[in-house]
Each structure stands twice: as C-alpha cells, then as structure tokens.
Amino acid sequence: MFKIPKYQLYLLQLESYELGRYFKLLFKKGFLPPDEPLRKKLIWTNKALLIFAVAEILIFGLAGVLGWLLRGSVLENTTASAIAFVGLVVILNLFSFLFFCLAEILIMPVDYVFKAWIVSRAKAKARMHPQIKIIGIAGSYGKTTMKEVLRQILDTRYKALATPESVNTPVGISRWIFRKFSPDLEIAIIEMGEHYKGDIREICDITKADVAVITGINEAHMERMGSAENVTATIFEAAQHAKDDALIILNKDDERILANYKSFVKPDQKVLLYSADAPNFEFSQQILGWQGSLPEVGEIKIRLMGRYSVGVAQAAGLVGKYLGLTNQQVAHGLNSVKPVEHRLQPSFAPGNILVIDDAYNGNSDGAREAIKVLAYFKERRKIYITPGLVETGSALKQVHLDIGRQLASAADVVILIRNSVTGYIEEGILSVIASPPEADDEAILTSDRLPRPSDALGARNDKPEIIWFDTAPEAHAALKDILKPNDVILFQNDWGDQYL
Prior knowledge:
Number of strands: 15
Distance between the termini: 24 Å
Radius of gyration: 26 Å
Shape: globular
Strand content: 5-15%
C-alpha cells in the first residue's frame, strides 16, 4: 500500500511541487507505480515529510468521519467499524495525490513564510561578511563546468567555495550561504538556476555579484519560460542585478549573448568577452583534453574534453587576473583542473573501452559539442546512446533533427531510447543519408565524412547502425553484447522519470 502514495509524492517532488504540472504528469504517467525500476528515488526533505504527514492526517481524519457516519446504520459493532476504518484508510491512500495537493495548498502560507525567513537570514549573513567577493554564473548551459574550473583556479590563492551540485535556487543558495559564509572565506561562486522569469533576480537580491559570468543562452527551459525572449531576459538578470560596477564576463561564441547584452549591461559595468575559437589549441587524446597557449598566461593543458573548455579557460583567466592572481597561478590552476562529474567525464572500461559520461548535460549546445568530441576518436568505433533532450519547447523537433544530422557523420552506432523525441533523431540521421549535406553545412563534421576511418573496425559504411530499446536500463544491460575492445561510447543525458 505504501508504494502508491510514495510514488505519487515522488512525482510531485519531480515537478517541484507545481500542482498544474503535477496533474499533467499524473495523467501521462499513471497513478500507480510502473513495473520497471524508477530512475531516481523520493528524497525525504522536510517539505516532503510535511506534505506526507499532513496528507496522512487528512486521510485518517476523513476515514474516521466516514466510519462514524456508517456506524449504527451499516456497521453494527465495534469490530466491524474498526475493519471499515482500516479499509477506508487503504482505499483513500490510493488517491493520495489528491491529499498531497490539498496538503501543499494548506502549507503554502507556512512554506512561503519559512522560505522568506531563510532568505532574510542569508541576506543578513552576507552583509556580515563584505570581504567575500561574489561570482555569479548564469546561462542555459556550461554553468557547472565554469563554476568548478573557477573554484579550482581561485583556490590556488584564496579560500574559495562554490555552491554544490543542484544548489541553484534562492532557498538552496540561502541555506548554503548561512552554513558556509565565515570570516575566513574570500570568494563565493554561486551557480544561478532559472526556470521562470525573475528566478535569477531573486538570487541576486540575496547578495549582489562582483563578477557575473554568462555562459550561453539556448532553448533550455523554454517550455516553462514560453519564449526565447523570456529566457534571454531571465539569464541577463545576472548582469542587471549585479553590482553597478561589476565585471561582466560573456561568451562571445553565443549569438544570443552578442545580440542582446548591450540592452542589459549597466553603463559602469566592465564587459569582457571570451571565446573557444582559439587556433593555437588542439585536442590531445593522450591527456583527453586541450593544449595550447593563452596570451600572457603561456602554455596550458586543460583536461576537459569539449572545445568549449578553451573558452572556459580564457574566462577563468580573466576572472582570476581581475581578482589578483598572477599568470603563473592562473596557469597552475588551469593545468590542475579535473573533469567535472557527469559532464564529458572520461573513464576506461576493460578492453580499453573509453567511456564518456555526459549524463548531466541536457541541452542542445552541449549535445552538439559532445558529438564533436566523439568524432575526434577516428581510430575507434564510436557509439552514442541517448534518450534525447527535454524542455526544448517549440524547438523540440528541430533540435533533435539537428542532433541526428550531426550523428550521421560522427557516430558508427546510435542507441536510442523510445520516447517522444528520439524518433526525430532517427529521422535526422536518415535524412542525411538520403540527401547528403552541402560541404559548408555546419551541423555536419566535414572532417569525418562517410565512409569513416573506423569502418575497418566493424562499423557500417553507409550510415550509423541505429539500435532501439524501450528503456534505458534495457539499453545499458545490452551494452555487454554491443561493445567491442577499443570502442568509445558517449552517454548523452539522463531523463528523469517525469520525462520518460
């Protein structure tokens, strides 16, 4: 019996307790737990515990009232009443989602006051430590990598801390500030998440940034935001609500940033641009990263696989020097950078199989970059596995068609999970095979045209082999029969249960 309310509460948590989205998800997924294992588990946060407790109180109370009404008319003795009460509790728990929604509505005022209290405490704590330089990072993609690289570089001279994984909301950041801000902390790096317009402004209201880094803007979260304009305006809140004299670091390679930043940056804010388009860098399969030279800093080796890491290195160098690091300290920090977990993170499996874990990357720019990384390994058979991307709004079809078109010339085997978007990836692959692209088509890697060097390793020379599975666990279980020695396999994105 407990599995059903637990599952229904899990879905509510997946949708961040938004009741409208919750009901849509319930009718899409069903009210009963599926037979296959869930991708994640319910996290018993204080809010989840409170909602569950209030819902159970409501269920027991309603069962008691119904039992009392039945007593003396239908039920003739105490034993029958007790049995009826238990039966009513069991039946009502099948409809726990209704009581969870009612509980969410009932605790909403308390929740609002509690969150406001947490945020006010964080603001007060931040004011107590004006010595701490704040670096805010916003963007549709690349935030976590930028955050981790900055932390590792700045830590060569300062005591620097960064918000941990998935802590990027006003309440989560407030809790982190209250726990971590101290007299000896010198730099705080804050990842700013966005789902709705105003989200980043709320974070900036807690403590304004001395440095704001905007990594890029794409269609991620457009499903919630409604339009590309809303996404752009929300991400640029990081600059609008930074300090009046803040340093603003922008990704020059992002068209939306270049087209819009002058409308959002304040007159006294200094703007510096960074770019991954540096001709003096090349990919090294030995270090699984990039090596080259940065102006003034000198030769570096940054062990991150995406080409964007060259831009990240430039941005980190700009921030580091702005905050007083020497060229030697910047170089040392960049050379010491370690791959970010689940973001183009390489490892080796038996048989010299290179595994590239990009499971936490769920945006189109990141996917395009990941496929380019896969194509670097021309002497290996290249395998790509994905359930596709989510929250791309009206761009959903085009995004996945483009992924398929790029894969047509980059991968030897494409493993797809059946869902609402992966059919477009297959369609994109087949469209390239049926009608080869022009030589100047940027979506296709011209250096890796069919047939591929890896054809001799067992790949097909007409198109990638497409293998379908109904679920990700089934696909992962089958890999032992698909993989061969010296293969390279890229795991792209990992859907939550609300999207499958």
